[in-house]
Specification:
By secondary structure, the protein is α/β, with parallel strands linked by helices. It has helices spanning 4-10, 23-38, 62-73, 95-102, 118-125, 141-155, 173-184, 201-211, 248-254, 332-337, 339-350, 387-390, 455-460, 484-491, and strands at residues 51-56, 77-81, 108-113, 130-135, 162-167, 188-193, 214-219, 238-243, 272-276, 309-311, 372-374, 399-403, 407-411, 417-419, 422-425, 430-433, 449-452, 464-465. The structure holds N-carbamoyl-L-aspartate. N-carbamoyl-L-aspartate is lined by residues 62-63, 134, 140, 143, 173-174, 277-278, 313-315.
Length: 493
């Protein structure tokens, strides 16, 4: 097996976000998966004596069973707590303690948990690598590997492929991870949400900020076939389309002004995939009586859908009719079956089974942060289901400072952004609205800045309100208008 150089780079590493995998890592995982598909017996025995522990705090069929089958097909073994009520979790044991204990029994932990950021916390505490098998409504990177492998197998290249992500885009962790990967691989994405299930702003902003995505609103166009009633103008009739590698028709669309009635369409020769998902009712996604995109044979009858593929991470409820199962365009059972070679490959690389020196050693989890890091204990993530709130005794607050219309702190556990409406200056002990940071010169040094969500919390931390006269300090112009964040990035790392 010749992948040892690349395998080295994954050995001992945790996979928490799809962003933890470079394009080279993904290529290496797929190359090995290809090898497994062609000749599975030659991999049998490579993980002899190795154990994977699956810690599932939420129900699962595909993910848990395919990880357990994958390690067994490599000749290793699996231990599992799939019913946490039968483990010490029911006695109140924390995740941080559980993974330290189980990490002594196994070589890799596969963790699914209802709180966003749980797998990152697990990776910070476990003595062995952790693989995120779904953390709340946040990410599900190994499902993305299965999705990408299936798309690649069917369409050849991901670059330039059009993918319509449909359904519960708000809570769908598979959708979030897939969108980040597709953007990185230069696919075009269109979001087709159910009523009330729009893709969260923090996901859109990350697509723009980290992947330089071009986002514009369009009318559903050919995708209105996914809804059973004609769409009203300002309802779900407009969707966010993201163009990374625009080809002719999209360039046309991009050059237009806002408010035009451009319709989503796919140019001739371009491929389209529909990625359908169920409503995540367990995360509070109500029916709301609104429209939800669904695929039936009737939806697919137009010539524009002749050469598409249909994917679904499964389980399905009623958004994908069983009559489509026999249609050659449907790939979802293949996509589920792909879970075996893809997860065998990921485990093979993570366990360093390519024969690398030191492969068994866990490498500390290092999350790449492009901007300014911020980790002061007096700022909490506003996402109530973030693990940093659930296991506050173990999770150190960690944020990236980002600037949209205002200063926001992106939680490095759950990705969600919390408004840092006020800042206190630890030198002067005064606090003021955070947008004033951009106006004060010389720029406040990042180590003196303490963000607060409210005036009350700034005051509780001992800051005094700076005179409200400053609130009207005029915005700077010209070169002086550089934002505080731009000057702080670099000196605050
Ligand atoms: C998904 C999940 O758990 O997020 N299932 C899976 O792992 N294939 C999708 C879902 O539950 O809707």
């Amino acid at each position: 097996m010749s992948e040892s150089r690349v395998a080295n780079s994954l050995a001992g590493r945790s996979t928490i976000s799809v962003d933890d995998l470079s394009l080279e890592d993904i290529r290496a995982i797929f190359d090995t998966a290809d090898g497994i598909v062609q000749d599975r017996p030659s991999y049998y025995g490579s993980a002899a004596g190795r154990i994977v522990a699956t810690l599932f705090y939420e129900p699962s069929t595909r993910t848990r069973l395919s990880f357990e089958a994958a390690i067994q097909r490599l000749g290793g073994g699996a231990i599992s707590t799939w019913d946490v009520s039968a483990s010490s979790v029911s006695k109140g044991e924390s995740l941080a303690d559980t993974v330290r204990v189980v990490g002594a029994y196994a070589d890799v932990l596969v963790v699914r948990h209802p709180n966003e950021g749980a797998s990152k916390l697990a990776a910070e505490y476990a003595p062995v690598p952790v693989i995120n098998a779904g953390d709340g409504g946040h990410e599900h990177p190994t499902q993305t590997l299965c999705d990408l492998y299936t798309l690649r197998e069917r369409h050849g290249s991901i670059k330039g492929l059009n993918v319509a992500l449909c359904g519960d885009l708000q809570h769908g962790r598979t959708v979030h991870s897939l969108a980040f990967a597709l953007a990185r691989m230069e696919a075009n994405i269109v979001f087709v949400p159910g009523a009330g299930n729009d893709v969260p702003d923090y996901v859109l902003r990350r697509l723009e900020r980290d992947y330089h995505a071009h986002i514009q609103r369009e009318r559903l166009g050919i995708l209105s076939a996914l809804f059973d009633r004609p769409q009203i103008e300002d309802g779900p009739a407009t969707v966010n389309a993201i163009y990374i590698t625009p080809s002719e028709p999209h360039q046309l669309a991009m050059s237009s002004v806002e408010g035009t009635t451009l319709e989503y369409r796919v140019g001739s020769g371009e491929s389209l995939s529909l990625y359908v998902t169920r409503r995540q009712t367990e995360r509070g996604s109500g029916g709301a009586g609104g429209q939800y995109p669904a695929v039936t044979l009737d939806t697919l009858k137009g010539s524009q859908f002749e050469n598409i593929s249909i994917l679904h991470p499964l389980p399905r409820v009623d958004e994908l009719s069983p009559e489509v199962d026999w249609d050659p365009r449907s790939l979802y059972f293949r996509q589920a079956a792909i879970g075996i070679p893809v997860r065998m490959s990921l485990l093979w690389h993570t366990l360093g089974l390519g024969g690398e020196v030191d492969a068994a050693r866990k490498r500390p989890y290092e999350q790449e942060v492009k901007g300014l890091r911020y980790s002061h204990a007096d700022f909490d993530c506003s996402n109530a289901t973030c693990i940093s709130n659930g296991e506050g005794r173990f999770a150190t607050p960690q944020f990236e400072v980002v600037r949209d219309e205002e200063y926001l702190l992106r939680c490095l556990y759950c990705d969600q952004e919390t408004r840092g409406a006020y800042v206190g200056n630890t030198e002067s002990r005064f606090y003021y609205p955070s947008e004033l940071l951009d106006r004060f010169r010389p720029a406040v040094r990042p180590e003196h800045v303490r963000f607060h969500r409210t005036e009350e919390s700034a005051e509780a931390a001992g800051f005094k309100r700076a005179s409200t006269r400053w609130d009207n300090l005029p915005a700077r112009t010209g070169d002086a208008a550089r934002r505080w964040l731009d000057t702080a990035v670099g000196c605050g790392r």
